[in-house]
Amino acid sequence: MRVVMFGYQTWGHRTLRALLDSEHDVVLVVTHPKSEHAYEKIWSDSVADLAEEHGVPVLIRNRPDDEELFERLKEADPDIIVANNWRTWIPPRIFGLPRHGTLNVHDSLLPKYAGFSPLIWALINGEREVGVTAHMMDEELDAGDIVRQEAVPVGPADTATDLFHKTVDLIAPVTIGALGLIAAGQTEFTKQDRSRASFFHKRSAEDIRIDWSWPAEDLARLVRAQSEPYPSAFTFHKGKRLEVLAAVVSQNRYGGTPGRVFYREGEGVVIVAGADARTGRNHGLAITRVRTEDGRELPATEYFTSMGGYLTNRP
What we know:
Layout: E1 2-7, H1 9-20, E2 25-31, H2 47-53, E3 58-60, H3 67-76, E4 80-84, H4 92-95, E5 102-106, E6 114-115, H5 118-124, E7 129-136, E8 146-153, H6 160-168, H7 171-183, E9 199-200, H8 216-225, E10 233-237, E11 240-253, E12 261-265, E13 268-271, E14 283-291, E15 297-299, H9 300-303, E16 311-312
Parallel strand pairs: 1-2, 1-4, 2-3, 4-5, 6-9
Antiparallel strand pairs: 5-7, 7-8, 10-11, 10-16, 11-14, 12-13, 13-14, 14-15
Helix pairs in contact: 1-7, 5-8
């Protein structure tokens, strides 16, 4: 099939690589300009560079809503558009232009985790598996019929970076497998159960601020979700920002006020956590490694020279 590809960052790069290695003919690529957004500078392999290396025409757009782009798409005469990590709305006159419509590739197990940063949100929420879904695009965000979907398990110590590497390897088989079904003439695919749908926004600094009223299990997953190269989860100690680089749920249960710097346990320092921590039924968060406001990284047992005091949400 003649394919036009819309995509950005490493997800788009992997999709374009799979298409270039396939039997299909990539006739045009549309991608976003480089961004200074903290999360868009991560996994930033260039779709434009890869296309140009293979002699494929490239258009750079923030939004696909201008007449020049529409005319170029009509001239390209695609059988299908394939999109992955395209960051703005694609209007119906574009996604409905190709003979077979538009196939969107999304890094979640739709209908759950539509929208942005699905791997991070899924890890924070304790999902047991994540994956990649190829679905036909329609007017509702990430809501079209599912053509192909594959899942991988979330391990007990997995970080968001681990899940990225697990799922990015699914892009090629999911995309090319879905295109194979479409090229073979299949037109009926799996409807999404919209009662199970969930939508998530882009991550920002507010989303990585530690709230000590959360249970320790949730906070441990937040720390893993914000693993390098993502911005680290942070709190404040004595008015200064403190990034939490590694933490685990404590072995013992600790009662008191959330945020209290309480006890050395193993290689960590336990912080009281949970809205009902006063009951004494909660585990705490055992912080094992931190980064200070001036950039020093050190074990928590070295940073906290004495117990007592509080970690807070604000300075």
